[in-house]
């Protein structure tokens, strides 16, 4: 995918872009390992730009150091009840700093899978598209079932996805399986992956 270094500063989400730059440059300066995740990570891989927040992942052991560094850089740090992230605000722009993904602590091994990309003038590690999509799929539930947004990003990055790995995530997760059946029947997933992902012999929709 082309890097995002040449995207003009003024865009659909200038406050979020500036927050992304501030958080990334602060963590880099403090030598705290991190990787861009979530919607902006998928944006780097070719998906539509998000409009709600920025997600970055840091190692679980570095979460306190990251919170202190961002607070000292002038961001407002808040600790929500959830024990897998904290929030950093640059004005009204929100950055979710994730230290657990898919129910597991973020560690150096996960961060090592994130190659650097040119993003808004900075070299920033970005998690692979499959890892980000997996986290979004495993978050699906009756109360969190925005298939429209997920379809848009999966369609945009489909050639970068490891469909066998995504299919394995469907085991015991009916919402994940339902979504993968949908993308297969819509022709978004490769034809040869259909049976592996969906565990069914249903033909594609006409």
TrEMBL record:
Read off the Gene3D superfamilies from this record: 3.30.460.40
List the InterPro entries: NT_sf
Checking SUPFAM superfamilies in the record gives: Nucleotidyltransferase (SSF81301)
Q: What top-level branch of life does the organism fall under?
A: Bacteria
What name does UniProt use for this protein?
Nucleotidyltransferase
Natural source organism: Microlunatus phosphovorus (strain ATCC 700054 / DSM 10555 / JCM 9379 / NBRC 101784 / NCIMB 13414 / VKM Ac-1990 / NM-1)
């Amino acid at each position: 995918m082309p890097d995002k270094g040449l995207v003009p500063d003024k865009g659909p989400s200038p406050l979020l872009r500036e927050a992304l730059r501030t958080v990334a440059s602060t963590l880099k300066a403090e030598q705290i390992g991190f990787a861009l995740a979530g919607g902006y990570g998928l944006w780097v891989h070719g998906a539509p730009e998000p409009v709600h927040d920025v997600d970055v992942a840091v190692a679980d052991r570095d979460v306190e150091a990251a919170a202190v560094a961002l607070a000292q850089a002038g961001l407002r740090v808040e600790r929500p009840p959830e024990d897998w992230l904290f929030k950093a605000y640059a004005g009204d722009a929100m950055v979710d700093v994730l230290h657990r993904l898919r129910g597991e602590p973020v560690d150096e091994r996960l961060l090592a899978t994130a190659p650097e990309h040119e993003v808004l003038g900075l070299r920033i590690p970005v998690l692979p598209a499959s890892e980000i999509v997996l986290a979004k799929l495993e978050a699906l539930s009756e109360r969190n079932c925005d298939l429209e947004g997920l379809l848009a990003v999966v369609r945009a990055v489909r050639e970068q996805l490891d469909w066998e790995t995504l299919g394995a995530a469907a085991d015991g997760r009916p919402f994940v399986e339902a979504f993968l059946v949908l993308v297969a029947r819509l022709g978004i997933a490769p034809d040869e992956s259909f049976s592996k992902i969906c565990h069914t012999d249903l033909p594609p929709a006409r």
